[in-house]
Design brief:
Length: 237
């Protein structure tokens, strides 16, 4: 048998996202109200390439899991959503460790911005890291993409937030100094999903202080009495 052809792909854009690290990014787009923008790269930064895109409320972003590409893939993976103990085939998961490292997210179309600094497509409900290379954009077509009666037996239910999120007085004062108006909701969306490792999620009191970067803010938080307490929000810029 002859070896199959090898194809090369180049990004058509790069995503600017509030998620500066993988930790605490939701597992799928609809789980956080995170907004970002795709900066179209030359020669794809032609406004004509976006003509009529405003007629679609939602779009598919196809992208590369660029932070994991060097780690390769294996035929089976432990899906975190299944508790991390069950191994399923990589093609039966949305694992980020996969052949070719391609991901797909259905996102909200928040409009085109064409300025002297570049051509941007604003998107909402993203689950992607800052600087993710975007390899294609396609319209989400409800009659075809929203399949009636489709089922996903292992993952039929949307994950429900498991933890209430509270702020100490100190953290609340620091939050008020932050310029990002969606930061409070983003913190709540991300931390209420309990992003701790699966083996920690049964710990109602956890002495560890976790840190997660959203925009240029470093969020410090702990789990106490079965709830998240955000203890500090420090600016990194
Ligand atoms: N919706 C996409 C899909 O189904 O292909 C992504 C699902 S994947 C399970 C979502 C996770 O990918 C996020 O929680 C984040 O940790 C990780 N992630 C996001 N952007 C990434 C990137 N550029 N490189 C590596 N991992 C990334």
């Amino acid at each position: 048998m002859t070896k199959p052809d090898v194809y090369s792909i180049e990004p058509i854009g790069v995503l600017e996202s509030p998620f500066k690290q993988k930790f605490a990014i939701p597992r799928q787009p609809a789980l956080a109200k995170a907004k970002g923008k795709v900066k179209l790269l030359a020669p794809y930064n032609d406004i004509n390439a976006l003509r009529s895109i405003d007629t679609y409320s939602h779009l598919w972003l196809l992208f590369l899991f660029h932070e994991n590409l060097h780690k390769g893939w294996s035929p089976t993976v432990r899906a975190p959503r299944l508790g991390g103990n069950t191994r399923t085939g990589v093609f039966a998961t949305r694992s980020t460790f996969r052949p070719n490292g391609i991901g797909m997210s259905a996102v909200e179309n928040l409009g085109v911005e064409n300025t002297t600094s570049g051509l941007y497509l604003h998107v909402g409900n993203i689950d992607l890291l800052h600087n993710t290379p975007i390899i294609d954009i396609k319209p989400y077509i409800p009659y075809s993409d929203a399949v009636q009666h489709a089922h996903a037996t292992l993952l039929d239910d949307k994950p429900v937030p498991t933890l209430a999120v509270n702020f100490t007085d100190h953290a609340r004062r620091q939050l008020a100094q932050q310029p990002y108006e969606d930061l409070p909701l983003l913190i709540e969306n991300c931390l209420s999903q309990d992003p701790r490792p699966a083996y920690k999620q049964s710990h109602q009191d956890d002495p560890k202080t976790y840190q997660v970067q959203l925009y240029d803010a470093d969020i410090h938080w702990q789990v106490s009495d079965g709830a998240v307490w955000v203890t500090a929000i420090e600016s990194l810029s």
